User: What shape does this take?
Amino acid sequence: MSERETDQALVERAQGGDNRAFDLLVLKYQQRIAALIGRYLRDNSEVMDVTQDAFLKAYRALPGFRGESAFYTWIYRIAINTVKNHLVAQGRRPPGDDVEAEVAEQMDMGGRLRDQATPERELLTDEIANNVQAALDGLPEDLRTAIVLRELEGMSYEEIATAMSCPIGTVRSRIFRAREAIDKRLRPLLMS
Amino acid sequence: MSPLRLTALLFGLLGSAAAAFADEGAAAILHRMNRSAEHVAFEGTLVYLHGHDLAALRVSHRVGAGGSGESLFSLTGPVRALARHAGGVTCMLPDSAPLTVRRPAAAGGLLGGLVLDFSALSSHYGVARHGVFRIAGRETDVVSVMAKDVYRYGYRFYVDQASGLPLKVDLLAHDRVPIQQIMFTDIDIDPAAAPPSGGEPPARPTPAPGDDADWEPRRLPSGFAVISRANFERDDGATVRQLVVSDGLASFSIYAEPPATGVLRGESQLGAVSAAGGRIGEHHVTVVGEVPLATVRFVLDGMAAALD
Amino acid sequence: MSTDLEKQRICCLMDGEAGRFEAAAAINDLLGSPELVGSWERWHLIRRALRREPNDLAARNIAGRVRAQLTATSGPTEPAPLPRIPHGSRWLSAPVGGALAAGMALLGLAVVLTRPVPGALDGDVQLAATTERWQQQDPAVRNRLDRLLFNHHEQMAGPARSGVGLYVAVIGYERLP
Assistant: This one.
């Protein structure tokens, strides 16, 4: 089941009344939508407010979502409209250079939509990034290779299995263990 | 065309007879495959090759508290679909009205409950293990069950190491040439539905002798025996009598009914399924099952000869 | 305490590598375990970090804020019962075209189509005559043989056992033009 199909499955559960499924979608996309909205707004608390508002709008519109587009494309449009309306309401002129949603979806195929971070937010990101990089560097070779091929090269498990000459089950295990190891290193920072 | 049926049958008896296999590893694999046929839910796409014709089907098997069921849907050629449900089987074929066959109340899951003497079975089949092969991206153990005469097919099973499901089944002629092959190209298996641990199937009582001795077979190919009897009603109210015959792996049914229109006179095949029909005394008899044509012909000829 | 198996399943889910059944199981696990939800959120954050995409610590609170807002405005919601095998999203609702759908509807029969129905089925479906089934010209003979075969299969398999193998030839049999 592709990522898009997984999102759709969560949407359907949310449409069926399970808000926990919608919560999983928010957890998955909150960073991306916040980064997207951060391209339009400088004030971080304003970014968070508008991001929250975008997700609430999406929740209310959820019964009408039929899955014709990917969930991210849909929430992307809602987020752009929300931030533009916000700017208009503030008497500010919204920029017109946002990436079209369809293009965003295409770029999103490998999960590679690059958000443009402001210097301020880059500073906030640094600590997480440094910890993740340090954890990555400390991984055993086989785990590091598996997670890099997956996350940076966008390879499927089958492709990674071929590249590493091992069964798919081993790839699954390696990627899981790599994530767990990085998570373990990162957890104290995120919990604090 | 039921390689998997045979598979399942095979395993019904393996429950008690695994030790009789020359290859203990093969026995364990087949035993697990038998249990998986009942307890593992899956869905996937398979290809079916018979002769020079290739077809693709989408299939699913559901298991749950609400009952089991499954569906098959052709992805190539004329649209054909079949669903098995609690009440029986409903089928849509291109050249006839929808067909529903109710499952008789006494229908029994003979594949799961059959207990035979494997030492007798092993005189007609040879079992061997052939290593590991990859099917649908998954590792499988390959086990062959080869027929020793022309009255039954041989089988080569590619059994998924993770679930026990057969992902590829080759049906083999006596000379080991494949007659048909069924192979999953992708399959999604419910990881929560692992087959339960062993346990022997309950012994099946020997069927009582029939009362229609005039049409019952006087001879059967070596190794085959009557394992079940049933009666059911035809649309016009006439009674159709059925004998289920098996050697522990292969099986066929002998049906006897009052003569009517639309019955088979002569021989016929559907893939690896063979049928033969003709008038035997006061009855019209049809023999049908996934066995070679030689087998159904042998049975019907034997019944006719007994009346001469 | 979540098991490694459950976590590995979540891992596959976020990579789009879980099969349908596995994905359903993973989602069920996620919905029932705050611990797994924590992993879900952090693993996505790690993904972004590995890809040099920005993470904002403040944005980690968005979900909690949305959750609180939804609870405040609508009260706690009763989750819908989780089907063991969830609907196949668009798969199950995909229209089955032509005579097949009509026939199945008449039978009151739901054929579980588990993949998007191929486009060809959405148009006019020609139920072309396949006169060579059983090599019998008379449809009544073909029909009777099908009945006898089905009856035999059902006697052998019983209600619980998979009959997929039994019926592959019945549904798969076709002669190419």
Residues 60-124 of chain C form one domain. Chain C touches chain B through 74 residues (CB under 8 Å). Residues 75-131 of chain C have pLDDT under 50 and may be disordered. DSSP finds nine helices and no strands in chain C.
